[in-house]
Amino acid sequence: MQSSLTPCWQLCEILQPVRNFFLLWLARERGRSLGCQLRGLSSVLTLGKCKLALATLCKSHDCSKDHRTTGNNSSIMATTASEANCSDAEPPPDTAAAARPPPETDTAAAASSDAKGGLRALLRIAIPTALANLAEYLPVSVALYFIGRRGDADDLDAVGLGRSYFNISCFSTSYGLISALRTLCPQAAGARKGKELHGLYAQRALAIVALAAIIGIIGIYFADAVLIHVLGQPKQLAKRAQRYGLALLPALFGIPCMTIVQRVMTAEGHVFANLAICATVFATAPAWQNFLVYRHGLGFVGAAWASSITNNQYLLLQIPYCLYVGLGHVFRPRSIGEVFDRRGVREFLGLSLPGLVASLLEWWSMEFVIALAGTRRSPAVLAAVTCALNIQTVLEMCWLGAMVATSVAVGAQVGAGDPKGAKRAARLGVLAAFCAAAITAAGLIVARPLIARLYSHDSDVVDLTSRCVPALALLVFFDAQNVCIQGTLSGAGAPQRIAMSNLIGWYGVAAPVALGLLFGLDLDQSAAPVLLCCCALGLATSFVLQLLALRSLDWEKQVQEASGRLAEGTGALAEPLLTSDV
To answer: What stretches pass through the bilayer (predicted)?
Structure first.
C-alpha cells in the first residue's frame, strides 16, 4: 500500500496550487465548507484512496452527487460513508469557518510563484547577456596581456592612458547617448510595437551618435595637448597615448553600431544569438593581437589596430542574422522626417541626455583615477591601478549584462501596462545583483595571489597590485549593485534619478575625499588602494541614492508616461502600424 501511495502523494503535492483552487471552487458550487473538503481529502489520502482524491478534484458537482445517490460499488470509488459523502461529516458552521484557511495563503503562494517565474525570466536574459558583454570586453584584456608580457612598462602605461582618454572623449559619449534605447526598446517590445518602432529608434540613435562622434574625433586629435597641459601627464607618455587613441578611431564606428543592434536583439529576446556572435568575435581577438603586436612588431599601436578590427566584426555577423530571423526592419532606411521628427528627437534626448550625464560622470571619474595615478612618483602606481580597473571593467561587463536584462524585464512590463509586474522585476533585479556582487567580491579576495600576477611580472607592480585587491573587491561589490539598479531605473523611464545620484556620489563625496587624501598626505604607492577605495565610496553613495529613488517611484505614472511616449512614436511614422508577433 505504501509503494502505491507514494507516487500519487507526490503528484498531489506538486499539484497543490491547482488542488486548492479546485477545492475552493467546489466548496462554493456545492455550498459546503472548505473544511469538510480538506478533511475528506486528508482522510482519503491517509487510507491510500488516491484515485478517489484525484477523481474528486476533477469531477463536477453533478457527477459527485450521482455517485453518492446511486451507491457506486466500483473499486475506484469504494469508501466509507464518512469518506465519500462530505455531508455526513460536515462540521458546524463555526467549525467550518475556523477550518477555512485565510485568503492570504493563496495570495502568498501566487506571489511566490510569480517571483520564481520572474527570477527565472530575468536570469534567462541576464546570464547570456552578461557572458556576451564579457566576451565583448575580453579583447581589451587580451591586448593588455600581450603588451604586459612583452616586458615594456612604458607600452602598458601608454595603453592604459590611451584607452582611458578614448573612453573619456569618445566611448562614454556614444554609450551615454545610446542609453535611451534601454528604455525605448523594451517598452516598445512590451507594447508589441517592436516591428514599427525599433528600426526608428535605432536609426535615430545612430544619427545622434554620429553627430556627437565629431567632437570625440577632435578630442583624440588633440589628445597630447590635453594630457600634457590639462592633466599634467609626461610628454612622452602623452604622445604615445595619442598614437594609441588614433589607432582606435575605427572602433568608434563599430562599437556604437554593434551596441544599437544589440539593444534591439535583446529586447526582442535574441540573447543567445547575441552571445554566440560575441563569442565568435572574441575567438578571433588573440589571433589579431598576435599577428599585429608580435608578427609585425607594431607593439601597443598594433594592439589598438587589432582592437579596431575586432570591434568592427560584430556588425558583419549581426546583419545577416537579423535578416534571417525577421529583424530586417531595423536596417530598412527611414525617412529624414521620421528620424529627425521634432517630438521624437525631443523624447529621445529627454531620455539619452540624463543617461549621457550619468555615463560621463561615472566614466570620467573612473578614468580620472588613472590620470591621478599617473601623477605619482612611482610608475608602479599607474600600472597597478590600470590592472585593477581593467579587472573591474571586465566584471562590469557582466553587471552591464544584468543591467540590460533588468531594463528589458522592467521596461517590458512598463510597456505592457503592468506596474505591479514592473515593480516585482525591479525588486528581483536588485536582489540578484546583491547576491552576485557578494559572491564575486569574495572570489576576488580568494584569488588575490593570481590577480597580482595576471598582467605583469614586474615585482613592484605585482606587490602593489596585491595590496590593491581588498580595495578592488569593495569597488566591485558596490559597482555591481550600482550598475544593476541603473538598469531598473532605465527600464522604468527614470534616467534623471541616475544622473543626479552619480553626480552626488562622484563629485559630492568621492572626489573631495580622493583629492584631499592624495595631495594632502602626498601619497605615493599608497595612492593606488586609496584611489580604489574612493571609487567604491562614490559608487556606494550613488547606489544608496538610487535605491531610495526606486522605493519612492510611482509606477502607475511611469506606465502612463510610457504609453504616451509610444503613442508619440507611432504618430511620427508615415507608414501604418506593424504589430510585433512577440
So the answer is: 205-232, 244-265, 271-293, 425-447, 503-521, 527-550
Distance (Å, rounded) from C-alpha 429 to C-alpha 547? 12
Are residues 148 and 456 in contact, defined by beta-carbon separation less than 8 angstroms?
Answer: yes
Query: Where does 268-341 have alpha helices with state H?
Result: 271-289, 299-311, 314-325, 336-339
pLDDT of residue 73: 39
**pLDDT for the residue numbered 259:** 92
pLDDT of residue 573: 64
Long-range CB contact pairs, 358-361, < 8 A, 24+: 358/176, 358/179, 358/486, 358/495, 358/498, 358/499, 358/501, 358/502, 359/172, 359/173, 359/175, 359/176, 359/179, 360/172, 360/173, 360/176, 361/499, 361/502, 361/503, 361/506, 361/507
pLDDT at 449 over 50: yes
| Cβ-based neighbour number of residue 272 at 10 Å | 14
As a residue count, the chain comes to 582
Task: Give pLDDT tens digits for 249-271.
Answer: 999 899 999 999 999 999 998 99
Alpha helix positions (H), 447-554: 448-452, 459-492, 495-503, 511-520, 527-551
- 11-20, 38-47, 143-152: least confidently modelled range: 38-47
Assigned C-alpha cell, 359: 555615463
Report the alpha-carbon distance of residue 339 to residue 345 in Å, rounded: 8
* Alpha-carbon span 344 to 155, nearest angstrom: 45
CB 507 within 8 A of CB 482: no
| Single-letter amino acid, residue 521 | L
Do 126 and 432 meet the contact criterion of CB atoms below 8 Å apart?
yes
Tell me how far apart the terminal alpha carbons of the chain are, to the nearest angstrom: 49
Convert 114-137 to b/e letters by CB count within 10 Å (16 or more is b).
eeeebbebbeebbbbbbbbbbbbb
Predicted local distance difference test score (pLDDT) of residue 541: 94
What is the pTM assigned to this prediction?
A: 0.70
Return the residue matching grid coordinates 600581450.
146
Q: Which whole-number Å values give the CA distances from 29 to 22, 60, 87, in the listed order? A: 10, 9, 14
Q: For 479-513, b where at least 16 C-beta lie within 10 A, e where not — what string?
A: bbbbbbbbbbbbbbbbbbbbbbbbebbbeebbbee
Q: Distance between CA atoms of 178 and 175, rounded to whole angstroms?
A: 5
- What pLDDT, on the 0 to 100 scale, is given for residue 574? 56
